Amino acid sequence: MATNFISLRELEQLASVKLDSNAYQYYRSGANEEITKKENIDAFQRIYLNPRVLRDVSKICTKTKILGHQIDLPLGIAPVAMLKLAHPLGEEVTASLAHQWKVPFTLTTLSTLSQSEVAKHNKDGLRFQQLYIQKNRQLTEALVRKAEKEGFKGLVLTVDAPILGKREADEKQRFVLPPHLRLEILEELAKEANIQLQSVANNQGSGLLKFFAEQLDQTVNWNDIKWLRSITKVPIILKGIQCGADAKLAVEHGVDAIWVSNHGGRQLDTVRSTVEMLPEIVAAAGSVEVYVDSGVRNGSDVYKCLALGAKCVFVGRPAIYSTAIGGREGLNKMFQILQSELVSTMQLMGVTSIQEIKSDGIVHKSKL
């Protein structure tokens, strides 16, 4: 069976068989030598659990709140580009399953499904729109207005990509978007700006990718956070914060949440793993909520992130791979595994609610 996996660590190998090399290498690849990509996973093994015993753990509650919205698990789906590369239903599957599990869903700007269609499948779920501040600010504002109209409850501004990182495996593969797929959001934005796109190798999708890359703005700075704040009342989440100093600046600029991310190891290689950045950023963020992604492959990893101060933990590649392997059933299995592992970790740690998870429940190997 396609969903006959029992661990998220199996997913990459299973996906390598299921996906064609064009799609697989795009999703799998990290920057340069992929040291950070590997570290994101390995770093969790250097954090040990410190359980308490003889506590009543017969009833476990995994509910929590982010930005004032209740969610049933401290988990969410990270923004993932071009999900129809992985499965014909792509974003339809991830948006609807996030609604079913009552967890946040983040839609990428590079989506192969429109914001309005995603909203239909996500219904009254908690959904965020990922975006970049583009050279043409009118494009950015148009994206924000459509997100507002379609009921998105947060804007996830990616701030670690003034340029795209060098992904060697991706370059060797010479990735192209299959001609039957459309980058729905970018298409709408291009039409909004009345931009005539030049086809690349007779591939409209690749033309849009070129358009997107050309719109990345190397001049974006903290003043642009003020500008974004001035045009919308939707909560702003900065994704890609990687140190305490920037977390402090984010707080000073009035953001609503900070998302610790190194882009899954796809941007700058040899930066720290996100779980190792987390304590420094949580300390600097004060009362501002902190989320995290990258490297999570077990419910115990989720627990460790929560113990270090994260309010929610987002997954990217596991969601891609499980969807590729089994569609809706595959992604549902991923959620089942993470939920089961988180609950069992909580029971074995002697805690019964997310609010009880504290930093005294973990010990870093370096301190032993």
Automatic annotation (TrEMBL):
Stretches assigned to the FMN hydroxy acid dehydrogenase domain: 1-367
Residue ranges that the Swiss-Prot or TrEMBL entry lists as coiled coil: none
UniProt keyword terms in alphabetical order: Oxidoreductase
InterPro entries listed in its UniProt record: Alpha-hydoxy_acid_DH_FMN, FMN-dep_DH, FMN_HAD, FMN_hydac_DH_AS
Residues spanning the membrane: none
Keyword Oxidoreductase: yes
Cofactor(s), names only, from the UniProt record: FMN
Domain of life where this protein originates: Eukaryota
GO molecular function: FMN binding; oxidoreductase activity
One cellular component term from this protein's GO annotations in UniProt: cytoplasm
Record-stated family: Belongs to the FMN-dependent alpha-hydroxy acid dehydrogenase family.
Protein's name in the database: FMN hydroxy acid dehydrogenase domain-containing protein
